[in-house]
Amino acid sequence: MWKNHHYLCITSWIFVLPIAYVLYKLFHHETIPTFEYVLLFLICINIGFSLLFWYDPVQESDIHIYDAFFAKLSMMTVMFYFFSRINEPIDVVVFLIILAGIMVSAYYSNYFSNIEWCCNKHIQSHGLMHLFCGAGCLYTLV
């Protein structure tokens, strides 16, 4: 039976876009920095844990803890990689906008989940966080 939180299983697939982009670069024989393979590995782990968790989201379960850990590790790794290869000032502006979107949506996801686990506003704000994180990963790899 379809439940509200299953929308986050759909938004979890947004993280396939950065993987598809790197595969596109490989198909066109572009050189891929080694660290991007590390990022792709982390993104794959995130997709797996996110799908497992949001299919049946039990708060503070082992899957929830692993999902949160790898999501935070991946965000920090993506930010480190992005800032190590800044080329233009516009890159900083765009990434700061994406980062602000992540932070605001994470705040509201946490806020609403503390009021009522898996309520509409919790799911919507967490879905936005998936969108912003996926955009940040993609922008970092482009």
Characterization of this structure:
This protein has one domain. 79% of the residues lie in helices and 0% in strands. The chain is built from 6 helices and no strands. The model has no long low-confidence stretch (mean pLDDT 94). Keywords: Membrane, Transmembrane, Transmembrane helix.
Q: What percent of residues are in strands?
A: under 5%
Number of individual domains: 1
Instruction: Please count the helical segments.
Output: 6
Largest sheet: none
Question: Based on the structure, what is the oligomeric state of the protein chains?
Answer: single chain
Shape: globular
User: Which whole number gives the mean pLDDT?
Assistant: 94
Number of strands: 0
Keywords: Membrane, Transmembrane, Transmembrane helix
Features:
single chain; 142 residues; mainly alpha; transmembrane; membrane
Helices and strands, with pairings:
Elements: H1 7-12, H2 16-27, H3 34-55, H4 62-84, H5 89-115, H6 120-141
Helix pairs in contact: 2-3, 2-6, 3-4, 4-6, 5-6
Short account of what is shown:
The protein has six helices and no strands. It is mainly α and 142 residues long.
